[in-house]
Amino acid sequence: MTTTMGPGAELEIRDKLQKAAPAGRATMKERLGPIGVFVGFIGLWYLISAWAIEAVFNKPKFLVPPPHEVIQDSFFGTAKIRNEMFKGVLLSAEVAFLGLLIAIVIGMALAVLMSRARWIEKSLFPYAVALQAVPILAFVPLIGSFLGFNFTARVFVCIVISLFPIIANTLFGLLSAEAGQHDLFTLHGAGKLKRLLKLQLPAALPSIFTGFRISAGLSVIGAVVGDFFFRQGEAGIGRLIDVYRARNDNPQMYGAVILAALLGIVVFWLFGQLSRVAVGRWHEVTGQS
Amino acid sequence: MSAVPTPSAGDAGGVVDPAAALRFQNVSMVFPDGTKALDDVSFEVRRGEFVTIVGPSGCGKSTVLRIASGLLRGATGHYSLADSNIGYVFQDATLLPWRTVQKNVELFAELHGLDRSERDRRAAEAIELVGLKGFERSYPRRLSGGMRMRASLARSLVLNPKLFFFDEPFGALDEITREKLNEELLRLFVHENFAALFITHSIYEAVFLSTRVLVMSSRPGRLVAEFEVPFPYPRADDLRFDPHFAELSGKVSHALREAHS
Ligand SMILES: Nc1ncnc2c1ncn2[C@@H]1O[C@H](COP(=O)(O)OP(=O)(O)OP(=O)(O)O)[C@@H](O)[C@H]1O
Ligand SMILES: [Mg+2]
User: Fold this and answer.
1) How far is the CA of B200 from the centre of ligand 2 (A)?
2) ipTM of the predicted structure?
3) Model-level pTM?
4) What's the CATH class of domain A65-288?
């Protein structure tokens, strides 16, 4: 066979088309835009802290410390504060990850179960939706009385809050394999397990990772918010925010808020990378890195 | 190939003609919603024959293939396959996007539990046959439509079936790519000596490829005309400009127009 010239040429053209379109437009504007917004944000912060807080909002100045003071007092201040914050953010990360992990295991198992038969889906899915719709904070006393007000309860909040996106995205992914692809497996007598492992799960991967990413963000929120309510044991970053607020340690409070935000961003980014590694070769991973 | 499960052999009807790779006798199909798709369809595809069905859109051509392959149940009448190991090529390449070309081509061998070295060997051979050598490690999204179809062809070759179903495999391709793949398909047909049941909307494609062309009427599909195509194989590209080719194409076209009404 000497037809390699044909398809080779086809591939080349395709390559050119792909390169020509999006890559050529990654301009300076696109690069500088986000930086500009950041600079603008910091500027606004200074403006409020130095002027607007008193002149416009009629509040005492110490409520909004300027950025450099926040950084200085929170991350370069006393060792005690630094330790406290470092431990706090670590503990919250631990809670969030553990909750997420358990939610992933339970959620994926439930989704696989629901994908087995329509009636199972019909029986379970409404409750998954309900789980999503219920305001978790209403259950704080209930959770507390069963699980205490410590680590376990916080992890539980994370599980509950991050379960639904995993169930929904996994299920959606499992059901997304095309009819034509299913036909291939039918033609070759593949049973349910082969179909699940070689068709449905791989087809579901992109959407499974989307679910992970959404849930990871939620789980961090769960860990921080749960901290406000389940106040026994070591303090996570959420409780530190509250503690500093109560003490009127405003720079530290802002620092803790920044850490909590960073934790969320890092986790979101991490799962974006993970999904890129897992399915990036064959699937266009959307969203920023 | 024996490691292949039997698709529903229909009511494997009485007479077993050793020369028939596929036989339909008085097959009708009514879908559960009442749509009557096929009406009393009878034909056979003999070993080494290349039979093409042309017909108006929605007349039931795909339904014929889906019944024959066992994908669709519930037809009445008799139909039987000489061998359950069939190749089936769809209009969409239906490649699995998470698998490389190599892994896609191996799929059926994998589903039938062939061991790794055997899978490798067969896949390499099939990839070579369709001219995709060098693209084994590419993912489908990086391939053009023509190359995807080649990969799909290679995939269907891997278990060496002796009967192929083609459901408008080249319908979505541009004219030149289509003609080129037509020629390569014929080369495979001569080389591998399989029987084929092919579906297309293109009369030229039908006449160029086939030993026999069947014309189907609008729904419910019935076979209304049949043409023997006398040109010997291998058929060269310039057969398309032969006056006999034009004449036969004209006849098929005429029959198709009548089938439309
Ligand atoms: N599952 C189904 N239920 C009801 N009607 C169906 C079903 N599948 C197909 N049909 C109908 O049966 C008829 C024949 O369908 P089929 O796909 O075989 O047509 P076709 O000849 O292959 O058409 P095309 O040339 O457009 O591919 C169509 O009218 C179609 O709408
Ligand atoms: Mg069709």
Assistant:
1) 9
2) 0.89
3) 0.84
4) mainly alpha
